[in-house]
Amino acid sequence: KTQHCAYEVFLDGYTIAKENLDARTDGAFIGTGYNIIPLKKDFEGKKLSIDLYVVENDTKISVITPLLGNYDDIYRLLLYTAAYPLLTGMFLIVFGHIFLLISLVLYMRSSGVFTQIICSLIVILLGLWLLTTFDCTTFLITKEINTFLRYVSLFLLVPCVYLLIYNLHKSDVYSVVGILGFSTLAFSILFIVLHLMNKVHIHHFLMPYYILSTLSFIALIMYNIKDIRSKTRNPSTQIIMLGITFVSLSFMLVVLSDMMNKNVDCRDSFIMKFLIPSASLFFVVTQLLNHFVFMTKFYAQRKEYASLTQLAYEDALTRLPNRASCDMKLNDLERSDLDFCIVSLDLNGLKQVNDNDGHPAGDKLIKSFADALSKVFCRKGDCFRTGGDEFLAVFDNIRRDELEALLKKLDNLLLELDKEDPDVNHSVSYGYAFRSETEEQDVHSVFMLADKKMYDAKRKHYAEIGKTR
């Protein structure tokens, strides 16, 4: 394994491998990672020499002893010694992408999902950092690309942490965290661009990054203290802050370890090998808990919204659509070219039932009539309760003879209700009108004509039984 070094490998004085020798003069970037060098079958007994050419000032002193063995054995050994970070990193990337997709779908339908999107990005960056830091991609990509991705994921973590803190504490709109977050993001992008332009190599910004990450950790601790003092009862904020605090704490230990430790291979560090993967998995657990809390709240809001919608557009007693729903339906018909029909219906004798037997009996009469109305008209048109004893039936397209048959069926059904409950008279007066019957052919004219016919029928009804309304 080399760190920012060009090299030559000799076997009995003959060069068998070399890499990045031009970087000694042109200043090209050389990454950190393992170098796989095949040996000829007759290597036994020969002298193997390795010359390293340091091209960066911050190359660490210690060099890992070269491994000699079968390719498959070395491949398995490298993966085995980093098994926990490898599996954790793969899981984090897969989990992060799945959770990001779920969050984006929810973001289209509900507010308050931005926190989950930020957390998903942090999880993906943690997974990428683990895989590249432990050289799990050695056999797939070059050292330069691997090292570049390692620092990119590392540098983008701090802006995401700032963004997460800022999003969880939106009351502090002009807070220092917001300024630090945007500044850190700008610096991170600047680091990446300068590296791609080969102006300055990306790892030269490690010390400024450590300073920025320390500031983010201090900000995180301050907001945790603030949440405790304010006794915030937002479970989502508490859960996510707990998870990101564990991750940030483990990375601060990495900063301290990196500044004091001269070892090249992080496989020798307990903090790197076990603590960060464990903290990352704990953050995933907190994200799942937060998602559970969010979904519980989300479905509760959906249920509440459905209840409010039901109250707004549905009659509580009869479960029929109310006047607001009726107005929406009539407005739609107004804009159409259909020869619609409106039937105006008014219960007979509801006032007498309320006065003589009480309002519960009147409610029972209204409910039984609404059930009969729905049973007869539900497959052909829409039924609405527009007032106390007033109902409307609206048909987009129906023949006159077909409507007459339905009204006859309704009369017969009400006669059957009279037999079942002889103490109450189940009868209704109605009148209907088609759009084509009116000169103006608008909804108001059709409704007024149907209502006039209904009152004519009601006067006829009371005249026949010798009563006044």
Key structural traits:
single chain, three-stranded antiparallel beta sheet, 469 residues, alpha+beta, four-stranded antiparallel beta sheet, elongated, 61% helix
* Molecular shape: elongated
The topology string of helices and strands comes to EEEHEEHHHHHHHHHEHHEEHEH
CA-based gyration radius = 39 Å
Strand order of the largest sheet: 7-8-6-9
State the helical fraction: 55-70%
Largest β sheet strand count, sense and barrel closure: 4 strands, antiparallel
Q: How many DSSP-defined strands? A: 9
Task: Work out the strand percent.
Answer: 5-15%
Number of helices: 14
Architecture overview:
Strand 7 (382-385) and strand 8 (390-395) form a beta hairpin. The chain has a four-stranded antiparallel beta sheet with strand order 7-8-6-9, with helices on both faces. Strands 3-2-5 form a three-stranded antiparallel beta sheet, with no helix packed on it. It is of the alpha+beta class. The mean pLDDT is 85. It is built from 14 helices and nine strands. The chain has helices at 23-26, 71-80, 83-107, 114-133, 143-168, 176-196, 206-230, 235-260, 270-313, 323-334, 350-357, 359-377, 400-420, 443-465, and strands at 2-3, 5-11, 14-19, 32-33, 48-54, 341-347, 382-385, 390-395, 428-434. Helix 5 runs antiparallel to helix 6, helix 5 (143-168) runs parallel beside helix 7 (206-230) and helix 8 runs antiparallel to helix 9. The N and C termini lie far apart (101 Å). The protein is elongated.
